Structures are given as structure tokens and as C-alpha cells.
Amino acid sequence: MRAVAISQPGPADVLRIAERPMPQYKAGELLIKVHAAGINRPDVLQRLGKYAPPAGASDLPGLEVAGEVVDGDFTNTGFKKGDLVCALVQGGGYAEYCAAPSGQCLPLPQGLTALEGASLPENFFTVWSNVFDRCALLDGETLLVQGGTSGIGVTAIQLAAALGHRVFATAGSDEKARACEALGAERGINYRTEDFVAVVKELTGGKGVDVILDMVGGDYLPREIDCLADDGRIGLIAVQGGTKAELDLGSLLRRRLTVTGSTLRPRSVAFKAAIASHLRATVWPLIEAGKIKPVIYQTFPLEKANEAHALMEASTHVGKIMLQVA
User: Fold this and answer.
1) 177 close to 190: Cβ distance less than 8 angstroms
2) What is the pLDDT of residues 31-70, one digit of tens each?
3) Contact present, 79 and 102 (Cβ < 8 Å)
């Protein structure tokens, strides 16, 4: 099969088309003929040599796919050959075929193309796990999304807004801030020209937000502590702004604040299958009803995965960058 391999750690042009053996599915896995795959920042980090795949995972990049089930272990899955699915995987998505744990597979939502379906798993699993499970965003609570026009950002904005929450989001330009508002954010905040702490406090009458989804880390953390409501929670999922921060621990104690972090890729199949079950019950009906829509910025053929990575690193996109495989 054709696949995109990382020839050596380095810039985008180290991604090369290669011939690889067809993956062999194991017990509890389905074999998918890949129609489309999503591009995600962990793929870029893996290409740079900064994020090794978990033990036993494919060395090929690619964490989410959609396509046709062509074989597999169908025991107690509800799936069969010919079904169209989207799936979260530990690697191997940039290829014509990919094996995926059946518990991490979801039916392609009605009305969506495979390309649209492939844009869902990584972001929806991540947002659900961090915003609704770890940070327990409750009815009536508010959410601040850092990086609102990323794939994670557009997912978090739409999902929280669809479930009735007030959402605020930061972005790197006025145009991107308005894009956040078009997706459901009450206010998009240009972090280059505005102080998100001051804006959030003004919008919440001085209370602050209940939950912050943070992909930045670094010196954002003490500012985020300042704009949290009492009993507020920060869910850290990336550290694009650095791995070190100085926090006022007294504020955490007095105001009962929580800072939590997680990465999804190394978690167990059982953990991810539980998230898939929540998504199928709660989120898939919202997608099928048109209340949440995939946001795809640009699509590239498999052989131009290097151009897709270059676009990801330029950070000019709003939404998902995708690969069309078949």
C-alpha cells in the first residue's frame, strides 16, 4: 500500500511517499480502507522527532481516519464489512489502509462525507475528555478556549455552544476572532491586541470563567488563574508557549482552583472506547442534526502531506487540514 513515511526527523519535506505492507489487524481491531485522514499537531511533533509514537504503534503519522471497513474482528462490535466509519488511532493514518481498535471506531455520521468524518475523532475525543470529563463543564458554566481557530478550538466552541454554554475564545487576528464568533463563541478575543483576562472579566461581571481549555501553557497559566472563577478548572492539553510557569499557589488554595493536564494518545483502548460511547450518545446526534459542523480549511492529496504540514506550521488556518487518500 502507499503511505506517507517520515524519512528522518526534520522539516516538512522529510515526509515521503513509501510502499509499506498492509497492516495486519489484531483481535479487537478493524481494518479500514482509508478514504481520508486528518492532520494534527502531534503529527508535526512526531515528524520533528519530538513526539515518539507509543510502544507498538505504527511509525507512520496520522491519528484519525475515515473510510470503509474491509476486514477485522467483528465480535461484539456492531460493525460489518462495508460499513463507513471514522476512527481514532495511535498512528498509521497517512496510508491507504489502517488498523483501528473497534472501540475507537464510530459510524460515519449521517449526511457527512468521509473527508468530513475523518476531521472528527482526534478533536472530539480530546475535547470531550478534557472539557467535559476532566474539567466537568456543568450546566450554566462558561468556557474559555485558547486557540479558537485550531481544529481543537473550533470543536470546543461548537460543542460547548451547542450544549448551551457561554463560550469565549482567543485567536491571533481580528479576522480569526470573528471566525470564532461565527462558530458560536459569544466573543472572539484577539490576543495580539487585547488582554484576554480583562475582556473575560468584563464579560462575566468580574466573576471569571469556570473552565479554560489551554493549548499554550507557559506564561499563559498565571494569567488564566487570574481570569478563573472560584472553583474554576484549567485543562492543559499542549504547551506551545512553554513547559514552565510560575503560579500563585495561594490563589489556588483560597479559590479552590484546579489545574489538570492530559495527553490522549498513550491512553488505553478501554479509556478511549468509553469516550467513543459518550460521543456516539451525546455528540453524534448534534452533528447529524446540523448543530455542529466539520470545519475543513484545506485538503491535500496523500502525496502532498508535506504541504499540509507546512500549512499547519504556518498557523494561518481556521479549522482542519485534511488528506484525501481515496
Assistant:
1) yes
2) 999 999 999 999 999 999 999 999 999 999 999 999 999 9
3) yes
Q: What is the pLDDT of residues 196-239, one digit of tens each?
A: 999 999 999 999 999 999 999 999 999 999 999 999 999 999 99
Please name the amino acid found at residue 167.
V
Bridge partner residues of 4 (DSSP) = 17
The radius of gyration computed from the CA coordinates of the chain, to the nearest angstrom, equals: 19
Q: Distance (Å, rounded) from C-alpha 70 to C-alpha 90? A: 19
- Shortest CA distance to 72 belongs to which of 115, 37, 105, 112? 105
Displacement of CA 220 from its chain's centroid (Å): 20
Alpha-carbon span 304 to 324, nearest angstrom = 10
Contacts of 325 (CB under 8 A, 6+ apart): 34, 35, 36, 37, 65, 67, 95, 96, 302
Total residues belonging to the chain: 326
Report the alpha-carbon distance of residue 184 to residue 293 in Å, rounded.
11
Mean pLDDT of the chain: 97
In sequence order, the 6+-apart residues with CB closer than 8 A to the CB of 55 are none
Long-range contacts of 283-289 (CB under 8 A, 24+ apart): 283/124, 283/128, 283/159, 284/106, 284/107, 284/109, 286/159, 286/162, 287/109, 287/112, 287/120, 288/109, 288/110, 288/111
Strand partners, 300: 323
Rounded CA separation 233/135 (Å): 6
Q: Are 168 and 186 in contact (CB under 8 A)?
A: yes
Its pTM stands at: 0.96
Q: For residue 46, how many other CB atoms are within 10 A of its CB?
A: 22
In sequence order, the β-bridge partners of residue 187 are: 168
